[in-house]
Amino acid sequence: MKNKLVSAPYLVWMVVFILVPLVMVAYFAFTDNDGHFTLDYVSDVAQYTPIFIRSIWLALIATVICLVIAYPLAYILTGLKTESQSTMLMIVMLPMWMNFLLRTYAWMTLLGNNGLINSALGLLGLGPFKLLNTEGAVVLGMVYNYLPYMILPIYSVMVKIDKSILEAAADLGCNSRKTMLRVVFPLSMPGVFSGITMVFVPAISTFIISRMLGGGGNLLIGDLIEMQFLGNAYNMNLGAAISLVLMVIVLLIMSIMNQFSADEDGVVLM
User: Fold this and answer.
1) Each residue of 27-60: pLDDT tens digit?
2) 158 touches 74 (CB < 8 A)
3) Which 8-state DSSP code applies to residue 112?
4) Quick one: how far is CA 182 from the chain centroid?
5) What does residue 58 show for φ and ψ, rounded to 5 degrees?
6) Which residue(s) pair with 199 in the sheet?
């Protein structure tokens, strides 16, 4: 009885802020303005396939870049002294304390034709290059904003790896490269998959980054949904249908990721 009372607020929160919104999205996706059942809006989502493909592609690129940057950083962090680890973690999380819009606006200033980057290149006789309003700028914004979400899960798993396992690998003849590939990397996979999920999901549904750094010419799924609900092309039913399809895509991708992921007890060392 006591456990039920403790979990009651959480259950209420889930119902109000998760279950009810999901039901509302599904309702509007499968009904017309008169409340009659229809599949028209769901079928209309197919015409936006190029936007879905672009969103998935850019989110995938950003996720891979985050992983390539975050993994060695997390590994380096685990090798530092405890005091240094705390300092470096604070530096990693420091940008997250700043407003999301302000961070993105900063990149607009840096990437503009008269921005700091082009101004610096101009001193070398280069440019100006079109850095803003490109797909590259959108990916850069995703990487900058979501990189901490890749570093922290990987670090949290790596720092828990028992040092005696690494010592045993060294005693058995593994050099640093083999220890990394055969011990550290397999044991860190839960953190890697968690980080991939935490970066890919917000990246595929973002709309502020693509609007501000993409200039409206690189429309993503998030922009499309926002246009249907808040733009001139107001169509709540179509917006709900697009949201529902995006939700299904994300769930499918996460299910595939779960098939490849292994829990910490299931890792097999080669």
Assistant:
1) 999 999 888 999 999 999 999 999 999 999 999 9
2) yes
3) S
4) 27
5) -65, -40
6) none
pLDDT digits (tens, 9 = 90+) for 62-113: 999 999 999 999 999 998 888 889 899 999 888 888 888 888 888 998 998 8
Largest CA distance in the chain: 74
Chain center to CA of 45: 23
The sign of the torsion formed by the CA atoms of 186, 188, 192, 198 equals: positive
The CA–CA distances, whole Å, from 105 to 62, 111, 214, 253 equal: 19, 10, 12, 31
Q: Write out the two tokens for 71.
A: 């993994």
Q: CA dihedral defined by 131, 133, 137, 139, rounded to 10 degrees?
A: -150
The candidate with the shortest Cα–Cα distance to 154, out of 95, 203, 199, is 199
Cis omega (within 30 of 0) for bond into 153:
no
| Concatenated DSSP letters of 34-100 | TS-B-SHHHHHGGGGHHHHHHHHHHHHHHHHHHHHHHHHHHHHHHTS-HHHHHHHHHHHHGGGGS-H
Q: Nearest Cα to 263, choosing from 192, 197, 195, 190?
A: 190
d(CA 225, CA 229): 6
Res 265: pLDDT: 45
Distance in angstroms (rounded) separating the CA atoms of residues 240 and 126: 47
Tell me the C-alpha to C-alpha distance, in Å, between residue 183 and each of 167, 172, 187, 201.
11, 12, 6, 28
Q: What is the mean pLDDT of the chain?
A: 87
Owner of token pair 């990721």:
257
